[in-house]
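re: ur msg from earlier - yeah i can do the pyridoxal-5'-phosphate complex, just paste it... oh wait u already did. ok heres what im feeding in:
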Amino acid sequence: MQLVTATRLPNTAKIDAFLAQTDAATPFVVIDVDMVAERYEQLTEALPSARVYYAVKANPALPILERLNVLGSAFDVASPAEIDMCLAAGADPVHISYGNTIKKSRDIAYAAAKGVRRYTVDCIEELRKVAELGGEGASVCVRLRHDCGGADWPLSRKFGCDPTEVENLLVLATEMGMECGVSFHVGSQQRDLEAWNESLEIVALLMARSRRRGAEPTFVNLGGGFPGTYREGAPGIDAYGHAVRTALATWFPDSVGPDATFEVMVEPGRYMVADAGVLRAEVVLVSRRSPLDTERWVYLDCGKFHGLAETMDEAIRYRLRTPHDGTATGPVAIAGPTCDSADVLYEKSSYELPLALVEGDMVDILSAGAYTTTYSSVGFNGFAPLQEHFV
Ligand SMILES: *Cc1c(COP(=O)(O)O)cnc(C)c1O
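and the outut:
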């Protein structure tokens, strides 16, 4: 069994009580909604000057959105359907940010009609669409591209533009009469605490240049990147809070303290829900490629097509729990149940599982509340999608 190096493992007592008595069909994820609330409180404590926009794509389940809405969270969405989910959860559209840089014109119009006001762009084409269709008082968030490394699940290649282009778009947005600001994303599961400082320095400098050309940026969006508790561990949220607060005080002194005038947004997805979920899968088969192999292949009834998409390139390495933990282990490759050879979870990451593991055992995949349920195929190979339960 792999041990995590973080000192504090999430307290899954409520989830464990559910798992001890359930006979629900696997695979499923069980979510402790109270833990989501706790994560919200911890993050707002760590970053008191930032408004939290929960990145809905991490887990859009209604009980999660409802709880966060009651706590005062705002929401970051990527599509009209996610807007509808937030509205169904009671969210005020003014607190919904349309953070996808790739939007159909009619989807911008839909958002505007629902009262959404803030849109992210990373090119002139998208800026023009928002100016035309984003409605009265539309506000533009220009996304910076910056790959700072250190993230287990990088996000920077597909989105964002270079600092000079961000500067140009800020100037244009101001000329068009729109409020504007800058966003970046340091990469998901970012384990380098310096990442925000590096990005904020670039943003502060480009904003200063844009101001000299007449732009009036009023906010900065720190994106996501805060961690879940996986095999390799990550610093605690207080360490992230300290690093980001220090960076804000350095580059955006008017964004901190009681007299802050500059708006700060943060868009956590993974941090809010990862540790609040456990995914339970059942062992379908344990086998060896040849009788002399020491490595066993463990096939679960949950794979890449049932929510474990982030095992792509073995990027996210989950902690696993079995009924035989504490007994002797041996090396394994771990795979899903489908007839697709891409459906392998781990082959190179040196996982070990108990030698006693047999067909029918339950394997719990820990901290699996983020980026799992909606990554599940509807019925590839006839396997039902990942189910979700709440405690
Ligand atoms: C996915 C996403 C997030 C959330 O990132 P995490 O690393 O899960 O916190 C935030 N902002 C945007 C724009 C995203 O696309």
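cool cool. The chain has a mean pLDDT of 95. ping me if u need the other ligands too
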